Amino acid sequence: MFSTIRSFLPKPLRDDRTVIPVVRLQGTITTSGPMRSGLCLSTVAQPLEKAFSVKKAPAVALIINSPGGSPVQSRLIFKRIRDLAKEKEKDVLVFVEDVAASGGYLISLAGDEIFVDPSSIVGSIGVVAAGFGFTELIDKIGVQRRVYTAGEKKVILDPFQPEVPEDIEYLKGLQQEIHETFVDLVKSRRGDVLNDDPDLFSGKFWTGRTAVQLGLVDAIGDVRSVLKERYGDKTEPRLFSAPRGLFGRKAGVGLDLSGQRLTEGLGEDMISAIENRALWMRYGL
């Protein structure tokens, strides 16, 4: 009798469902501007907070699709997820779609378990900085570079000046520190299951199937199948998204894990879009 009455109740009043909040984390990891969207703490903080606040949910599922980006934003997002998981006492299940590379993989480490598609791209545990040199160009077109500084190292790695070996070594030292932080985080989260492979922290990336064998992830699986298998056929995944801002974009910075830098202005936004596209194309996407 009670089950018959319950079937006529609105969905929110039924108690036979297990709601699992789902948050999608997609895109390059950077700071967003008014004319472009990016994956950063400011864009994901609100949906994460709402997802972890669903009282009866035993877990929160994260769908990740990111080729990487800012190491700072990557770690901030990772930390916010782990802080919320501890505070709300919930498991975190991560599901990788096309790619979780570099900073995208760093965020994935927030999961208590990481699931992938066999063809997902995973890894790229490394740091890269990229740029251009224009010294010959400005000489050819007769342009003079005029820079005035207080501090002799204020313009190191200036693309309009010749490279200085000493400055390159300094940059590599910074990269090494960031890389060590990344590696330490991987070991702290996955150290008990990681394969002893010499290429693991070389910046190399693998398919999801190989990533399982290496211990970078746990298993092959998709969000719907895994959730229903774990929590029952009446499990209901519920998506929590960031609010939409100007032009329908989600509302929401240096050296980074993917070689991107924060830029300002519409023209530079176009350059940033090209760089982002190139980053996705690195993984065949």
Q: Could you give the topology of this structure?
A:
Blueprint: H1 2-6, E1 18-26, H2 41-52, E2 59-66, H3 71-88, E3 91-101, H4 103-108, E4 113-116, E5 121-123, H5 135-140, H6 165-190, E6 205-207, H7 208-214, E7 219-220, H8 223-231, E8 235-239, H9 266-281
Parallel strand pairs: 1-2, 1-8, 2-3, 3-4, 3-5, 4-7
Antiparallel strand pairs: 5-6
Give a verbal description of the structure:
This protein is of the alpha/beta class. It has helices spanning 2-6, 41-52, 71-88, 103-108, 135-140, 165-190, 208-214, 223-231, 266-281; strands at 18-26, 59-66, 91-101, 113-116, 121-123, 205-207, 219-220, 235-239. Strands 1, 2, 3, 4, 5, 6, 7 and 8 form an eight-stranded mixed β-sheet that branches. Strand 1, helix 2 (41-52) and strand 2 form a beta-alpha-beta unit. Helix 2 packs parallel to helix 3 (71-88). The model is unreliable at 251-256 and 258-268 (pLDDT under 50).
Total helix count? 9
SSE sequence, one letter per element: HEHEHEHEEHHEHEHEH
Largest sheet, described in full?
8 strands, mixed
The total beta strand count reads 8
Radius of gyration: 22 Å
Secondary structural class: alpha/beta
Estimate percent helicity.
25-40%
Assembly state (oligomeric): single chain
* Separation of the first and last Cα atoms: 54 Å
In terms of DSSP E residues, the strand content is 15-25%
Question: Given the C-alpha coordinates, what overall shape results?
Answer: elongated
Low-confidence parts: 251-256, 258-268
